[in-house]
Design brief:
BirA Bifunctional Protein, domain 2; SH3 type barrels; Arc Repressor Mutant, subunit A; about 325 residues; globular; seven-stranded mixed sheet; 10 helices
Length: about 325
């Protein structure tokens, strides 16, 4: 455990702790404590420093806990299959590296801090450390990559179900891989709550490995949010309460695991109707931007592979598949 992590574990109670007490508890010098606090503050962790009193977090920190997550799971996952990391380049990349050493189907990786988290189109995924959910789950498909069409959309349904089970209302899906929210009675703008990224390795006809990466905004600090180039929202804002990340993580793992088992046996078709019901733009007029082309039309739904079906103003029906495409509501 790093000094930074040890300091944060002690400060997680929200109380003041002097540099001397922290150093004695961890077994390092006051200078090392000061350096660790500065590093945490540089990662957008809000730590208050008061002369004569010491350090404290501006609010209690709910750190990820393997034992709590495992105890709340409905599915049975071995302890060694749930990897809780304090810092990593990417939870997806961690599992992909692990797959070179062993069969990791069903393994889950979570991290408090991601240095190189990715969203769609290679964009960086911004998340305040120790405040959000960055989770990846691996699954091996004997039938190969051909059997994975629509997997990211099915994952969106599973995460939406998990959020509902936690008590979160009003979350919609946005094709292809976004979870979004629109404030009831608010303006027309929608805000991004989370997203799904799938990395795939293997053969078309099998076997193949899929790693589902989930990023969910639980609580974003302003210093982190200033890097985000689109409207966003977090669960803390939506629910006006502190979110139990361990409980929510167990629900997400449960629902993803159940979804993957059903997807492997039945494919995407069994999730198609539910995804369309949850899609924010179903039946609405949209603008679809692809490269230099903009198409206006009505969203009819999706096909059996997860492609977006659009009826253009001319009456022509076209199906679009994930790629360099952006979707927004038509004026």
């Amino acid at each position: 455990m790093t000094t930074r992590t040890a300091v944060l574990k002690i400060l997680a109670d929200g109380e003041f702790h002097s540099g001397t007490d922290l150093g004695q508890a961890i077994g390092v010098s006051r200078a090392a404590i000061h350096k660790a606090v500065k590093a945490l503050q540089g990662s957008d962790i809000q730590i208050q420093s008061v002369t004569g009193r010491g350090y404290r977090l501006f609010g209690p920190c709910d750190m990820l806990d393997q034992r709590q997550i495992l105890e709340r799971l409905s599915v049975s996952i071995p302890q060694q299959s749930l990897h809780i990391l304090h810092e990593v380049d990417s939870t997806n990349q961690f599992l992909l590296r692990k797959s070179r050493e062993q069969d990791i189907s069903g393994h889950v990786c979570m991290a408090e801090c991601q240095r190189q988290g990715r969203g769609r189109r290679g964009r960086q995924w911004w998340a305040t450390p120790y405040n959000n959910i960055m989770l990846s789950m691996a699954w091996r498909f004997a039938a190969g990559t051909n059997a994975m069409a629509g997997l990211s959309l099915a994952a969106g349904v599973a995460i939406s179900d998990a959020l509902e089970a936690y008590g979160v209302d009003g979350v919609s899906l946005k094709w292809p891989n976004d979870l979004i929210w629109q404030q009831p009675g608010g303006d027309e703008s929608i805000r991004k709550l989370g997203g799904v990224l799938v990395d795939v390795q293997g053969e078309a006809d099998g076997p193949a490995l899929a790693v589902l990466g989930i990023g969910l905004n639980v609580r974003l600090h302003k210093a982190t949010a200033q890097h985000i180039e689109q409207p966003w929202v977090d669960l803390h804002t939506m629910m006006n309460e502190t979110i139990d990340r361990n409980r929510l993580s167990s629900l997400i793992i449960d629902h993803l695991h159940s979804m993957l088992q059903r997807f492997e046996s039945d494919g995407f078709f069994v999730f198609k109707k539910e995804w369309e019901r949850r899609h924010f733009y179903t039946g609405k007029s949209v603008l679809l931007q692809q490269a230099q082309q903009t198409v206006q039309g009505k969203v009819l739904g999706i096909d059996q592979f997860g492609g977006l079906r659009i009826e253009q103003v001319s009456g022509q029906q076209t199906t679009y598949h994930a790629g360099e495409i952006s979707l927004r509501r038509a004026p």
